[in-house]
Amino acid sequence: MIRLMHAAKPQSRAWLESALSAAERYHRYYTSGGHHLPDVGLERFWDFGPHGSPPPEADSHERDEEGRTPHERIRQYFREQLDRGGIDDYSASLSVRRADGADIRRFYDYAHDELTPEYYDQDRAMRESGFDYSRRFGPFNASILDYAPVCLNSLLYQLERDIAALRTLLGSDSAAWTEKAERRGELVRQRCFDPPDGLFYDFNHRTRQRPAYAFATTFLPLRVGLATPAPAARVAQRGLERLAIAGGLASSDREEYDQVRWRFSSLLRRFSGICRTRFARICLRPHSVLQWAPLQLFAVEGLRRYGFADEADRLSINFASCVLKVYLKTGEVRSDHFERAEHAAVGEVRCPRAIRACRAAVRLPFERARLRMDQVRSAGDLYTSDGLSVRISVDDRLIRCARFAVQVDR
């Protein structure tokens, strides 16, 4: 972001020095203390709160319609699974069920019907990531501290390269930062890329394995340029085969419904230029039909960076079409979108700052990526581009399509 701002409008030396100092402080935060995993040379999400303390927002404003906190619901889920004889152990194998329930007992004290201090540490780290509850890092992401995530380390690779470039611009020594980036890129390629599946996965530093959980963050190494050409081509092929849907790019290909929480993280905000929102809620969310705007941007820009322009165009058009359908139904540009063949696009309202991410994901493919306008000549054409439809009269559709262009261009 700093480099983009300077390229668009040259900044003063004092401004660049201040920005460089802030970037280095930010890097130091994410590479020190509990964030660093010395045994693998990569970073993880981590929260510096007191050991075993629950995140205060969970009990204050994340209650469901019945007044239950997410922790009360998760505690009930763990107890029911133990009564049934265990739960799939995602930290070992996606196909193994631990009959002794040891995987749950790390996080749930059955005798006292309480979540363990370790669970609360994991939950706070999950919230730092900014992603929803899922099984990407175990049930409810309750094993996130076991992982070096491909998303975090890809973004840190980009930050290290940006810092090196800024130091060069200011006439300072940048060799150490270039070396940091090269070393991290090599470790991500070594630890996170899975040749048989052709995808980048998160790396479990405890089991030394890559659980085969396909997630849209597989495109982050392409977005930041750390993937070599052959793995990038594999991700472009396999990632789209598994994650591309009518409305864009699904977060995952797994049909899972879990209690989830939403909040943009400062990490994603800093690297993608998205403003943070503190909006949070609990709901049931299927990741296989969820399109999250930042992940659309990362995938489109990553594909285009490695020469997959047609694939990037198709993904851009499909997501923009999904956003348009929601606007036609509601008169609003919303931030989260769900779309599948049996039910047309559905959007969730967020606070205005979060919605800017969605507007950017629709607008940037046309502006930054130079989407070929002969593919989509108008918002009316965009409406039908993915083959799905919503029930609305033709006259209303034409009027709202015109308004949509104004909304997205704000």
Sheet-strand content, in percent, reads 5-15%
Percent helix range: 40-55%
Largest sheet: 3 strands, antiparallel
Q: What coarse outline follows from CA principal-axis ratios?
A: globular
Q: Could you give the distance between the termini? A: 20 Å
The order of strands across the largest sheet is 13-14-15
Mean pLDDT: 76
Q: How many helical stretches?
A: 16
Radius of gyration of CA atoms, rounded to a whole number:
22 Å
- The counted number of beta strands is 15
| Low-pLDDT runs | 89-101, 257-286, 340-345, 368-374
- Would you tell me the structural class of the helices and strands? mainly alpha
What is this entry, summarized?
The chain has 410 residues and is mainly alpha-helical. It has 16 helices and 15 strands.
